[in-house]
Amino acid sequence: MVFGNLFKFRSQDMAIDLGTANTVVYVRGQGIVLNEPSVVAIETSNGVKKVKAVGNDAKMMMGKTPDSIEAIRPLRDGVIADIDVAEQMIKHFIKKVHGKRKLLSYPEIVICVPSGSTSVERRAIRDAASNAGASQVFLIEEPMAAAIGADMPVTEPIGSMVVDVGGGTTEVAVLSLRGLAYTTSVRTGGDKMDEAIVSYVRRHHNLLIGETTAERIKKDFGVAMAPADGIGHTIHIKGRDLVNGVPKEISINQGQIAEALGEPIGTIIEGVRIALENTAPELAADIVDQGIVLTGGGALISGLDEALSEETGLPVTVAEDPLACVAIGTGRAMEDEIFRGVLTTA
Ligand SMILES: Nc1ncnc2c1ncn2[C@@H]1O[C@H](COP(=O)(O)OP(=O)(O)OP(=O)(O)O)[C@@H](O)[C@H]1O
Ligand SMILES: [Mg+2]
């Protein structure tokens, strides 16, 4: 019976990738059990704020809420914009994963926090997890989690480079022997790409579109380099005409989308170039052999690997499931003793 209880105890341990765009939860022995947008809808009535919806339900409300409801992304640009709402969100997701199962004992939780979070914010996140029932909370750096999740040789004396293009930030890191030999973070990721599409459409077509529409265009048709014929697919976009205020539809092609995304993608490539310049020669030599691995949702932009490879002259590959890498890596760091050294308590 002791073993039975012990098993139950361990099986409630979880790893959480607290991303600016998505929160992904991994349970020991089960893998990923939850993947939802990091969005919370807050309703204010008679001056009292109440959580109305979290995750998928809240994201569906974005840009469409009445005055009394506000859909908030508590983490933005790789930092925690609203710690209270972030805490409520974490608690909600932890509860959702536990479901109706009664906690026999308290689980251990490993959280991957945005790299830009301050020590005060890290403590607040840790407290939120403790308040939600965790007995012990560990933290892990995002690029380390991404690299473990992408099966990179992080425990060996071999230098490797991971580039995690998330919603808020792009983390560039060189790893070797369970440590981050060099790391840099640029505040450009998927969100900046969405904003670039919004502003391109406004400037060139006098059309106002929402962030959700821009994100959909990016996911379905986004390209890092202009198509061979300069045009590619042509798509129709609906929004509000800025001149006469009425709804209207325009069409743009993938060549124009590549132009719109030029600036954020250029910033990401520049971040990688700076990291390469700052890498110690022995590690740089390894990276020539190992190449660069792309993780995070932004890695799915068509042609980003090619653009980066052209710019750096190095082989670039996209990890198998880029959106899940950080959660998988955080989960493995929790499950496998070999990675224990990468976890911290502060
Ligand atoms: N197919 C796709 N093509 C382009 N971008 C995509 C695609 N799928 C998702 N994305 C983008 O990836 C981003 C989310 O990636 P991810 O979940 O890795 O970010 P995050 O971990 O929440 O953010 P961060 O690491 O910055 O905290 C969003 O901006 C989303 O629009
Ligand atoms: Mg991330």
TrEMBL record:
Gene3D superfamilies: 3.30.420.40. One of its GO terms (biological process) is regulation of cell shape. It comes from Parasphingorhabdus marina DSM 22363. It is found in: Cytoplasm. ATP binds at residues 20-22, 167-169, 215-218, 297-300. Forms membrane-associated dynamic filaments that are essential for cell shape determination. Acts by regulating cell wall synthesis and cell elongation, and thus cell shape. A feedback loop between cell geometry and MreB localization may maintain elongated cell shape by targeting cell wall growth to regions of negative cell wall curvature. This is Cell shape-determining protein MreB. Forms polymers.
